[in-house]
Design goal:
With 286 residues, the chain is an all-alpha fold. 64% of the residues lie in helices and 2% in strands. The chain has helices at 27-51, 55-78, 84-109, 116-140, 158-165, 167-173, 180-198, 218-234, 236-262, 281-285, and strands at residues 152-154, 202-204. The protein is globular and about 50 Å long. The model is unreliable at 270-286 (pLDDT under 50). It is a multi-pass membrane protein. One of its GO terms (biological process) is phospholipid biosynthetic process. Its main location: membrane.
Length: 286
């Protein structure tokens, strides 16, 4: 009996009808994407835990998501596993973990007591985080980058914003009663952090190659890092409050350093004559 289809012949006349072949993908290319997926899962789990009133676990999940989201790109570059697919996944994870998740955790814990004002504050922060990430992607894709981009961020980076906006929750864990008055102050603080995200404030990044540490300070700095981690494990929310306050106090120092170099208080343009910023609508208007 004849079969309805001719037998398959490799590289034969019916080979093209099978469509594109599936290629084997090296495992190293999947590792960064797996980290990104885990980050998204952690961020969404933090939202669920917040709605279940398990706030401490919710904050831990959001911070873990932010940490994983912050290292996936570095892991990809280290393993030479960067890809356009991974970049799109990372952008999706960023808006979830740095925008949606922390805003909803703060809203469920505190801002809902401020009613509509609390929800508006959460919306403003989330949209600000999305705009900050979009601006970062636009600047990262420039062919000719300004020299200062390796040393300064334009506005507070989104990962830091996620850590900062959770300050009212840290204070609640330390015993500050989440009253209605506290909720209104929390809403104002949330809007402030959203403004810092989309501002033109120069924020020192510490990524420049010229940033070097004296040899005799290497061991003390490493020891200080160990002490910081030990305190973080033992007095988590106290240390997080101190970290947030220290970061906010450091912002004027970065702006002062920028002013000394370029003579302006904010990053209003490329600050580099070799960079053409004429077509950067986002850079000009945000």
């Amino acid at each position: 009996m004849k079969t309805p289809f001719p037998p398959f012949e490799p590289h034969g006349p019916n080979d093209e009808a099978r469509g594109p072949r599936l290629r084997e993908i090296p495992l190293r290319l999947m590792v960064p994407n797996m980290i990104t997926v885990l980050a998204i899962c952690a961020g969404l789990t933090g939202i669920r835990l917040a709605f279940e009133n398990r706030y401490e676990l919710a904050v831990v999940a959001v911070l873990v998501a932010a940490f994983l989201d912050g290292i996936d790109g570095r892991v990809a570059r280290l393993m030479k596993a960067t890809s356009k697919f991974g970049a799109q996944m990372d952008s999706l994870a960023d808006i979830v973990n740095f925008g949606v998740a922390p805003a909803l955790v703060v809203y469920v814990f505190l801002l809902d007591q401020a009613r509509s004002l609390g929800w508006i504050a959460a919306l403003i922060y989330t949209i600000a985080a999305g705009l900050r990430l979009a601006r970062f992607n636009v600047m990262a894709e420039r062919e000719n980058k300004a020299s200062w981009q390796s040393e300064y961020f334009v506005g507070v980076p989104a990962p830091a914003g996620a850590m900062l906006v959770l300050l009212p929750v840290y204070l609640g864990f330390l015993g500050l009663t989440p009253t209605k008055t506290f909720a209104y102050w929390g809403a104002a603080y949330t809007v402030l952090i959203g403004f810092l995200l989309v501002s033109r404030l120069p924020v020192w990044s510490g990524k420049t190659e010229s940033s070097r540490i004296r040899r005799d300070l290497v061991l003390p700095i490493m020891l200080a890092l160990v002490v910081y981690v030990a305190l973080l494990m033992s007095y988590t929310w106290h240390v997080m409050v101190v970290t947030v306050v220290a970061y906010l106090l450091s912002l004027p120092l970065g702006a002062r350093s920028w002013t000394r170099k370029y003579g302006t208080f904010t990053i209003n343009g490329p600050a580099d004559p070799d960079v053409d910023d004429s077509n950067d609508d986002i850079g000009r208007h945000i």
